[in-house]
Amino acid sequence: MKVLVAVKRVLDYNVKVRVKADTSGVDLANVKMSMNPFCEIAVEEAVRLKEQGIASEIVVVSVGPSTAQEQLRTALALGADRAILVECAEDLTSLAVAKLLKAVVDKEQPQLVILGKQAIDSDNNQTGQMLAALSGYGQGTFASKVEISGDTVAVTREVDGGAQTVALKLPVIVTTDLRLNEPRYASLPNIMKAKKKPLEVVTADALGVSTASTNTTLKVEAPAARSAGIMVKSVAELVEKLKNEAKVI
Amino acid sequence: MTILVIAEHDNKVLAPATLNTVAAAVKIGGDIHVLVAGQGAGAAAEAAAKIAGVAKVLVADNAAYAHQLPENVAPLVAELGKGYSHILAAATSNGKNILPRVAAQLDVDQISEIISVESADTFKRPIYAGNAIATVQSNAAVKVITVRATGFDPVAAEGGSASVEAVAAAHDAGISSFVGEELAKSDRPELTAAKIVVSGGRGMQNGDNFKHLYALADKLGAAVGASRAAVDAGFVPNDMQVGQTGKIVAPQLYIAVGISGAIQHLAGMKDSKVIVAINKDEEAPIFQVADYGLVADLFEAIPELEKLV
């Protein structure tokens, strides 16, 4: 079966975020960008399905600026067969991204689409569910285990109280949770080989999708800073402070 | 304006997060209706009708809604939601699973995990793991929003007397089915609702050592959490993880034991009222957000703390 994986270029998760002084957003100039961690897990799952002989082709797609080609090359180095970049400059909302991905899904007709459960920049946790709604497919969100047999997929999902398993009819949208797998690293020979793999660039306009949004971000601010704490010297002093000063126990 | 709140429940009991979601609806202003979609969810519907401030409870009782499968529940919510100004759900795993599907069916953008209501169309929400706060305005005809429970004090569970109305609509997409679930058993308070949380990290060294934290938690009536390092090392199950990719908690008191304080962990707990850090590394970043810090070996400090509280 054909597997489509969506990846997003985001601020590297180890970078300390700086909010711009004019409150227009977060400062992304000259900071390290990477593939969103949950997307790495999505790519890894697709590659494992190929290694098991279940997936025949892995197409990786990203919606974003031309620099997102770096992340697509990374996915190719990890084992994806070819890449599609839907190029658009501005920061799109999840619904707009889902609509663009729907256009790609219509064209590619994959049996399985894997996305991360959320991107660590916008923290929305929406795109996979929205894509499932637009395509009319079943959704296996926050997946910690994916088992394909015949035309159904059993997805074990991380839910608040523990784990839940659902059975979904293919084609299916799956979003990954942290526990699904441990992503591999790209080897140098594979990075070199990835440069020769096909990477197609299309524009949002060419897909005939409107990316208009009903949301407007008015401002972005730094969170309120916590006032400096104190160091205590002993457990007894700590208990005394918690009881009499903070009054929380 | 009329607001539709999606009740969080397991067909028997209404989850506390519903009360926080209603609190957000009260801040928006307008009539508040609560939808209870499930199977045999009469008790949950009765509980919803008693919530202070709720005008009407809609009950959609159907086998297709028994396990809150989004393929079946989302079309129901989208259909009912068309007549409302806002659709709200708690940012729980169910709310996060279902609501974006509803938003896409209504062709509107969703606003996830709001932490405050600025006006009926403007909300604040954390981005970048809580390292920035965005103010977002929506001009959608129906505003679809998930609510971070810790951002809103719950409304009273008693005192209301809403009318209860059955909804006939049945949607069964027939593409998904519930197979089973495995819920972690615990007598301690639920992590996201606990007043006190005691969390352990890699410094606990192994799963067995978490018994020290359990003993302390039981004495304090606290829930026990963990950092991702402790979960990945297999010390504890992953539903105990506090952080950007785990649970977001904001208790009165958060005690971090053997946790260095990586930014992804801080994202899940830095809105706690009082933070205590116990770590033997005085350079650990957790001390920068802690109200009270103690540099000590946790294997000596925790038993002593348990004795003194």
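qc> The mean pLDDT of chain B is 94.
qc> done
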